[in-house]
């Protein structure tokens, strides 16, 4: 994973620089999300990894599947990645780009996993608390994992706050073993 990130970072930085210069951050987000999804498809992986196809043919296949939704710069990115045998990096490039965009916009994506669905009041309270703690705008999504029993796990970038009953029981069991 670290190797993929290292390989993808220069491409993500170049795309981010282009998007910032042209004031097209959201357009590039859409293009990269589409390219990431299409390139990760099992059928597309067979095409882009097929040894009998040239890099131009592989790039064109990916572009054709995306249709007219890609701008010329995104098509050029696909061509460059294909020429350098780096099409598999598209999901990682998209993720790095989104991190750079969020940092620029001073926002963070937070995923809250809880045993039960959060009420709108709970979600709002949690959003405000995280906004104060992280000192940036928070975009929150929630997931349900009934195995947590109760409480929640909050993930914001590298920060993970495990307030679940399952997590607390695991810590207690570990403490009792030592």
Automatic annotation (TrEMBL):
Record organism: Thalassolituus oleivorans MIL-1
Localisation per UniProt entry: Cell membrane; Membrane
First and last residue of the signal peptide: none
Primary localization: membrane
Keyword Cell membrane appears in the UniProt entry: yes
Recorded topology in the membrane: Peripheral membrane protein
Role, per record: This protein is part of the stalk that links CF(0) to CF(1). It either transmits conformational changes from CF(0) to CF(1) or is implicated in proton conduction.
Top-level taxon of origin: Bacteria
Cellular component terms per the entry's GO annotation: plasma membrane; proton-transporting ATP synthase complex
Similarity remark: Belongs to the ATPase delta chain family.
PROSITE patterns for this protein: ATPASE_DELTA
Keywords on record: ATP synthesis, Cell membrane, CF(1), Hydrogen ion transport, Ion transport, Membrane, Transport
InterPro entries in alphabetical order: ATP_synth_OSCP/delta_N_sf (IPR026015), ATPase_OSCP/d_CS (IPR020781), ATPase_OSCP/dsu (IPR000711)
Entry protein name: ATP synthase subunit delta
GO molecular function: proton-transporting ATP synthase activity, rotational mechanism
């Amino acid at each position: 994973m670290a190797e993929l990130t290292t390989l993808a970072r220069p491409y993500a930085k170049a795309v981010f620089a282009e998007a910032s210069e042209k004031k097209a951050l959201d357009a590039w987000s859409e293009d990269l999300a589409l390219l990431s999804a299409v390139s990760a498809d099992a059928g597309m992986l067979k095409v882009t990894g097929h040894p009998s196809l040239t890099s131009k043919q592989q790039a064109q296949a990916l572009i054709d599947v995306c249709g007219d939704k890609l701008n010329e710069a995104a098509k050029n990115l696909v061509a460059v990645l294909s020429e350098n045998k780096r099409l598999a990096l598209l999901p990682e490039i998209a993720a790095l780009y989104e991190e750079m965009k969020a940092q620029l916009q001073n926002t963070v994506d937070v995923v809250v996993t809880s045993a039960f669905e959060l009420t709108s009041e709970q979600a709002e309270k949690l959003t405000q608390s995280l906004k104060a703690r992280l000192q940036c705008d928070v975009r929150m999504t929630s997931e349900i994992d009934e195995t947590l029993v109760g409480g929640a796990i909050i993930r914001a970038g590298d920060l993970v706050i495990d307030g679940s009953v399952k997590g607390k029981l695991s810590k207690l069991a570990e403490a009792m073993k030592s």
